[in-house]
Amino acid sequence: MSEILDEIRDAYDLWGIRLEAATYGTYYRLICGRCGNPIGCVGDKLLPGMAQHMLEDQFSLYAAGLIGCKCGYQSERARAIDAVRADAARANLA
Ligand SMILES: [Zn+2]
Questions:
Q1: How do the domains of the chain map onto residue ranges?
Q2: How far is the CA of 74 from the centre of ligand 1 (A)?
Q3: Could you tell me the CA-to-CA distances from 67 to 1, 26, 27, 38, 78 in Å, in that order?
Q4: How far does the centroid of ligand 1 lie from the alpha carbon of residue 82, in Å?
């Protein structure tokens, strides 16, 4: 297990997203940690710090439910991480 993969795994773990090895290449499927639905994929060709930065950039999108699982788990995670910011992201969408 590579260090960068551990880092990516940890970054997504905060959002309630699991990584699952795909059958080919260096891509990993992103799986909702609550209901197990696939919600995308990520490559492991990232530099240290990139995964966290990427998720940080996507905070509003997850908070507003624009990306992430339909069950709303990542949106709930956003509220748990930063409620004020999550509410603001949702208000901006309305
Ligand atoms: Zn889900």
A1: 3-93
A2: 8
A3: 27, 22, 19, 12, 12
A4: 20
CA of 93 to the centre of ligand 1 (A): 21
The per-residue pLDDT for 44 is: 87
Q: Give the contacts of 51 (CB within 8 A, at least 6 positions apart).
A: 4, 7, 8, 11, 12, 42
pLDDT tens-place values along the chain, 94 residues long: 578 889 999 999 999 999 998 766 788 999 999 999 999 999 988 999 999 999 999 999 999 999 999 999 999 999 999 999 999 999 988 7
